[in-house]
Amino acid sequence: VEVKIEVVLPEKERSKEEMSPNGKASPLIYKVNGTARHYHLEEHPIASNPYHNPKDVVEASVCHVKDLENGQMREVDLGCGKALLIKEGGEFHAVGHKCPHYGAPLVKGVLSKGRVRCPWHGACFNIGTGDIEDFPGLDSLPRFQVKIEKEKVYIRASKQALQIQRRTKMMAKCISLSNYNLSSTNVLIIGAGAAGLVCAETLRQEGFSDRIVMCTMDRHLPYDRPKLSKSMDSHPEQITLRPKEFFRTYDIEVLTEMQVAAMDIKNKTAVFKDGFKMEYNKLLIATGNTPKGLSCKGKEVENVFNIRTPEDANRVVKLATSKNVVIVGASFLGMEVAAYLAERAHSVSVVELEEVPFKKFLGDRVGRAVMKMFESNRVKFYMQTEVSELREQEGKLKEVVLKSGKVLRADVCVVGIGAVPATGFLKQSGINIDSKGFIVVNKMMQTNIPGVFAAGDTVMFPLALRNNKKVNVPHWQMAHMHGRVAALNMLAHGVEISTVPYLWTAMFGKSIRYAGHGEGFDDVVIQGDLDELKFVAFYTK
């Protein structure tokens, strides 16, 4: 059996070359910096043609055509796995039924204008293609064939795709990697969080076949950072976003434990701490934030942590079990850590300058309701005060002294008092940085320097839904979108960012989901029952 797979590109990028005599597709041509480069499109194994093996295919009648109204979704069982059947505009579509991010049932999500949105964390998928269009998450949904016969709806699918429930988009590979000079790359990405990884993957998905190098101060490949405070005993290998083989397959080089010390923008060169230099053509800066430390007496004693790495999180859990924990700062990180340790530690105390947790972000009433939930789970609060001293015994933390005079017993202390952008290495670089250290970018994630882009927690960017007001939104979902927009504009696609910020947190089995940007609200309209924590709050101005 001869199987031909046709890759259809937009008209302007379509290659004029015909199929070559041996039946394989000729490499397509993609222009980068004015020079034509060849690339072969590669398909990730689980996304290859799902119907090449007849034994792997299942076809089942799932409903009558009149069982579904327009705008309805239904989870259907094909015997060896489930699919999500959707009817919109009189047409039926079938895709994977679970969100590839954390496995949420998409049937409980929202269907609107040809997209289904995940009910948990807001990822968004095109119902016609299954492609991911808003984040978090990296993979798309598998798409299944639908046919109508005698008023019945049939779905035809590969058993493998039904079981895996995720699909990695088609990607290019790097051509002749061996020809490259080690100290130069076409694209250099500084930082290996969500923004950096999505940028690299998007470049490959768009057919970019030149060298991509990511560098990170971390010891690990890119990992799911929100889990550091939400699931603190996760080991690095459990939370990696992509396995080692993935980076090898798609020629995305990751330099770990490599810190950039300075930038020579004029000569397009990054200077690393160890003296190594790397030239680049296009640059993405996605270095994230550096957590603030305490400045009080005794700040250098042992067992005081900023949660920055999986090792930090694991160590805190180990030290906190059946011991006394003090958390400084009722930030999202601080409160998530408090919730996680409440059942494991002997005592958990939270010290905060404000009178209510999350006051600036969620307002007084919601903050108090959350605080009440924590108090009913044995967490003690010491509000409107701060730490004046950390006392030690044999070098290790023993007590936390507050400015109010209160002394708290403490075997371990976690500091969550905010962060500053990790942009110190850009001083004197010529890149536009504001007074707080944030990199200023436009709607295309470009800095004031041509070919230099920035993304993630470290940027101030124009937010479409707030009349393009420049804002900093340090959310996981937003970092993904920044990375994607930056990559598309490195390839001169002229794409502007227009996504809605989205944040989630989970504490004691309750999840708070926040959409939009409520900075500067002066009233909170609450519908539902705040005491039961079953409510919607609208932040208005």
UniProtKB/TrEMBL annotation:
<dbReference type="InterPro" id="IPR017941">
    <property type="entry name" value="Rieske_2Fe-2S"/>
</dbReference>
<keyword id="KW-0560">Oxidoreductase</keyword>
<keyword id="KW-0479">Metal-binding</keyword>
<dbReference type="GO" id="GO:0046872">
    <property type="term" value="F:metal ion binding"/>
</dbReference>
<keyword id="KW-0274">FAD</keyword>
<dbReference type="GO" id="GO:0016651">
    <property type="term" value="F:oxidoreductase activity, acting on NAD(P)H"/>
</dbReference>
<keyword id="KW-0001">2Fe-2S</keyword>
<dbReference type="InterPro" id="IPR050446">
    <property type="entry name" value="FAD-oxidoreductase/Apoptosis"/>
</dbReference>
<comment type="similarity">
    <text>Belongs to the FAD-dependent oxidoreductase family.</text>
</comment>
<dbReference type="GO" id="GO:0051537">
    <property type="term" value="F:2 iron, 2 sulfur cluster binding"/>
</dbReference>
<dbReference type="InterPro" id="IPR023753">
    <property type="entry name" value="FAD/NAD-binding_dom"/>
</dbReference>
<keyword id="KW-0408">Iron</keyword>
<dbReference type="InterPro" id="IPR036922">
    <property type="entry name" value="Rieske_2Fe-2S_sf"/>
</dbReference>
<keyword id="KW-0411">Iron-sulfur</keyword>
<dbReference type="GO" id="GO:0005739">
    <property type="term" value="C:mitochondrion"/>
</dbReference>
<feature type="domain" description="Rieske">
    <location>
        <begin position="60"/>
        <end position="155"/>
    </location>
</feature>
<keyword id="KW-0285">Flavoprotein</keyword>
<dbReference type="Pfam" id="PF00355">
    <property type="entry name" value="Rieske"/>
</dbReference>
<dbReference type="GO" id="GO:0097194">
    <property type="term" value="P:execution phase of apoptosis"/>
</dbReference>
<dbReference type="InterPro" id="IPR036188">
    <property type="entry name" value="FAD/NAD-bd_sf"/>
</dbReference>
<dbReference type="InterPro" id="IPR016156">
    <property type="entry name" value="FAD/NAD-linked_Rdtase_dimer_sf"/>
</dbReference>
<protein>
    <submittedName>
        <fullName>AIFM3 factor</fullName>
    </submittedName>
</protein>
<dbReference type="Pfam" id="PF07992">
    <property type="entry name" value="Pyr_redox_2"/>
</dbReference>
